[in-house]
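Subject: mismatched residue count in predicted assembly?

I count 599 residues in my input, but I want to confirm that the predicted structure covers every chain. Input:
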Amino acid sequence: MSHRLRWRKFVSHFMLTMTGLCALVAVAVLFFILGYLVYHGGTSISWNFFTNLPAPVGETGGGMANAIVGSAKLLLLACLLGVPIGFFGAIYLAEFSSGTIAFVVRYAADLLNGVPSIVIGIFAYSLVVLPFKHFSTLAGGFALGLMMIPITLRSTEEFLRAVPRALREGAMALGASQWKTIASVVVPAAYRGILTAILLAFARVAGETAPLLFTAFGNRFWSPGWNQPTASLPVMIFTYAIAPYDDWHRQAWAAGLVLLGLILIINIIARVILSRGVAVPRT
Amino acid sequence: MAGSRSFLSKLGDGDEIARLVTFIFAGSVVLITLLLVFELWRESYLPRHKFGFGFFVTSVWDPIFDKFGALPFIYGTVVTAGVSLLIAVPLGIGAAIFLAELAPARVSDALQFFIDLLAAVPSVIYGLLGVFVVIPVMRQYIQPALKNSLGFLPFFQGPAYGVGFLTAGMVLAIMVIPYIISVSREVLISVPRDQREAALALGSTRWESTWKVVLPFARTGIMGSIFLALARALGETMAVTMVIGNTPTISASLFSPGYSIAAVIANEFTEATGDLYLQSLIELGLVLFLLTFLLNGMARLLIVITSQRGSGMGQA
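Triage response: the counts match. Full output below for your records.
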């Protein structure tokens, strides 16, 4: 083996090992984040965290019950806005669309998907907060819903397109109209994918903080109805983390653990749904 | 298929209604997007009118005297995004090479699963770890070490606060690495197999075939993944706000606390009194929107070009 060949082989092995290290570092970051949150959050979490209101400033204890309910309400509103537009829009794109219109819709959705979340917040502010003249659950839910639309729309469309043409033609040959074909054959065949798309969109907006800062704002008490400022878990993590109180830091860790746990579990469920069995039911 | 039937019969069995209803939903996406651009434009009328282009090149941000210049925020945004790419690009592409070229398919898929989970971690969690882990580590170990070894460079001078451009850039790097890995891996996998085999048959080592044949082939798509990461880094709000120090400064030193466009919007929007102040913040949002719009557009174009080239040559 010549000197030069040995050198080339050494470089090859060395560089390939380095790429392995890069991959290792990336994955290690995930486990570090998880481990650190479980360690710090796990020691801070308690039953009170889920059932109590935040304690007055300066007192220790208290929980984030209002933020948990607030987040749930915000996400419910987000789904009410994002899922129908994403789902029916995707049906239009995959089943009815003609070239130009579909191109424009896809382009708009991709554009919306790329908009920084803080800018979505500004938009929701000028559209919902300004007319009502105060921060509200409604405005926060609107902002999150906007972010769900493009994610739901584009992935649902992909999954609808993956349904074999033969299934559609079979249904139509039996005399079903187009919408009946879609409702009873195409959508059921793609339901795993559609569910995954919705779950992933939900998980994505569940952790969004920036668009809530000046739409849902924050609240240290319960927020009755839909027209009041409301607390939410991500915003609570932010305000508690940058506050100077140790007890608040502890609660920020606990909230972080709850939020990250929820998001990762939804992500895993979504992927399990997708990987179980084939997307098209066997005949 | 249904073209031969009359309009009335199609209306009768509901097809036209279904088409119309779904069209309304799809069309609303376009409407919302147009409305977003329109609102940003309309709501930033005052500063556009009053400061013109000077908004981007002056650095006084003084709400009391109604003087607003965005230069320190633009500087902070560009510098943090630049630092993050310097760290994330080599790491991300390295990891993507490992996943696409070396790892067996099962291992690669398993690792990709973890990378996808990493991409799902919300930015406020990165901010939380940034505040309590990255900032102390930077202050006590990394910044003094950099100062001792590379302190003669203007980038690594001044007191080590922990917060600042470098810290924000590092946190951003960790956040964008998953995007670079996922897209680059897809692009690398789409490189036709015969390209690799030809290089190996000519006697190149595995690394040489990757470095001199596969990477150049996938270059455009990898550039796309970098643009995508850059767009994310520019628009990222929470993690940056929590670690950048929130002081409008323009300084060559990466240790210096700074401010970014997204961070100033997040911090000052609810406190902005007066129309000019609020609208200046909205104009910053407009700038951010246009930047990410351009970058995302270019990224998509580059990725599409590569994957089409890959599939086209694979069939030839």
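Chain A has two domains: 3-32, 50-275. Marking this ticket as 'not a bug'.
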